[in-house]
Specification:
Elements: H1 3-19, E1 23-24, H2 33-62, H3 68-97, E2 101-102, H4 104-137, H5 142-145, H6 148-175, H7 202-234, H8 239-268, H9 276-300, H10 303-306, H11 309-316
Antiparallel strand pairs: 1-2
Length: 318
C-alpha cells in the first residue's frame, strides 16, 4: 500500500515529462534551511556583483575616462552583469517559490546569454592584457596599437564571435530529442542538457571540446603578455613601484585563473568523468564569484577609477 502513492507520483511525473516542453532545474541547493542559508549567501554575492558592475559602468561614463583600457573595462563589467543576471535570479526564484521548471525559450535564452558572455569575456580579458603589455613595454606605440578605434573593433569581434559560438551550441543542443526525463541536473541551462538526449551526442560533445580548446587561446594571450610585463616590472629601478606593479598584475592573473580554470576543467572533461554536483560548485566560480571580484580588482588599484567611486555610489543610492 505504501508503494501505491509513489507509483502514482512516478506515473504523473512521467506523463508530465512526455507532454510538457518545459525543462526542470533541480537547483544547486536542497530545499532545506542549510540550502536557504547558502542561497542567501549567493544572493549577497550576486548583489555585490550587480552593484559593483553597474557602478563601474556608470563611473566610467561619468568620469569621462576615455582611454582604451577603460572602454574595455566597461565592456567587461557589462558582460559580467549580463552573465550573473542570466543565471542567479532564476535560481533564487525557483528555490524560494518551489517552482523548478523553465520554459523551452527560457532555457534557450539562458544558455545563449551565458555561453555568449563566457566566450566574449575570454577574448576581452586577452585584449586587456595586451593593452597593459603595450602600455608598459612599448608606451610609445600605445596610440597606434591600442587606439580607441582598434578597441572598438576588438569589442565588436568579441561579441560577434561569442554570440555565433553560443548560437551554434544552443540550437544544436535544443534540437536533440529528449528522453522521458527533462530534468537538467544543473542550476542553469547550458550543455548540461546533453545527457537528456535519446540519440548519440558525440558530435555536440566534440563541438564543446573544440570550442573549449579554442577558449584556451585567449588565456595564452593573457599569460604571455603578463609574463612579459612581470619581467619588465622585475627590472624596474623603483622598489616601491616594482612592488605595486607586481602586486597588481599578480592580482589580475589570480582573478583570470579563477575564471578560466573551473570553466576549462568542467568542459574539457569527457561526460563520463563529469559529476553534476562538482559541475555546480565549479560553475559558482565563473558565474558569480569572478563577476563580483572583477570590479573590485580593476578599481581598487587604479587611482583614476577609485577616485570617482564615492560620487558614483551616491548617484546610484541617493
Amino acid at each position: 500500500m505504501e508503494k501505491e502513492p509513489k507509483l502514482k507520483q512516478d506515473i504523473s511525473v512521467e506523463k508530465w515529462n512526455q507532454t510538457s516542453h518545459d525543462f526542470v532545474l533541480p537547483g544547486p541547493f536542497p530545499p532545506n534551511p542549510a540550502g536557504l542559508l547558502l542561497l542567501l549567501l549567493i544572493l549577497f554575492v550576486f548583489l555585490l556583483a550587480s552593484v559593483g558592475n553597474s557602478a563601474m559602468i556608470r563611473l566610467l561614463r561619468r568620469a569621462r575616462l576615455h582611454a582604451p583600457m577603460y572602454l574595455l573595462l566597461s565592456q567587461l563589467s557589462l558582460m559580467d552583469l549580463v552573465c550573473t543576471s542570466a543565471t542567479v535570479p532564476k535560481t533564487a526564484f525557483d528555490l524560494l517559490s518551489g517552482q523548478r521548471s523553465i520554459s523551452f525559450l527560457g532555457c534557450a535564452g539562458q544558455s545563449f546569454f551565458f555561453l555568449t558572455m563566457a566566450c566574449s569575456e575570454g577574448q576581452l580579458l586577452a585584449s586587456m592584457a595586451y593593452d597593459r603589455f603595450v602600455a608598459i613595454c612599448h608606451p610609445l606605440h600605445c596610440p597606434v596599437r591600442v587606439s580607441k578605434r582598434v578597441c572598438v573593433k576588438v569589442i565588436a569581434a568579441s561579441w560577434a564571435l561569442g554570440s555565433t559560438n553560443s548560437l551554434a551550441h544552443t540550437v544544436y543542443a535544443l534540437r536533440l530529442p529528449s528522453c522521458r526525463s527533462r530534468a537538467i541536473d544543473h542550476f542553469f541551462c547550458d550543455v548540461a542538457m546533453l545527457p537528456l538526449a535519446c540519440t548519440d551526442t558525440w558530435a555536440c560533445e566534440y563541438m564543446v571540446f573544440v570550442s573549449t580548446s579554442l577558449f584556451l587561446l585567449p588565456f595564452l594571450g593573457i599569460t604571455a603578455p603578463y609574463g612579459r610585463v612581470l619581467f619588465a616590472v622585475f627590472h624596474m629601478r623603483s622598489r616601491e613601484g616594482r612592488k605595486k606593479a607586481f602586486a597588481t598584475r599578480c592580482t589580475h592573473l589570480t582573478v583570470v585563473t579563477f575564471y578560466y580554470a573551473p570553466f576549462v576543467y568542467t568542459y574539457l572533461r569527457p561526460r563520463s568523468l563529469r559529476s553534476p554536483a562538482e559541475d555546480k560548485i565549479l560553475a559558482v566560480f565563473y558565474t558569480i564569484l569572478t563577476p563580483m571580484l572583477n570590479p573590485i580588482i580593476y578599481s581598487l588599484r587604479n587611482e583614476e577609477v577609485l577616485g570617482p567611486w564615492p560620487g558614483c555610489l551616491g548617484a546610484l543610492f541617493p
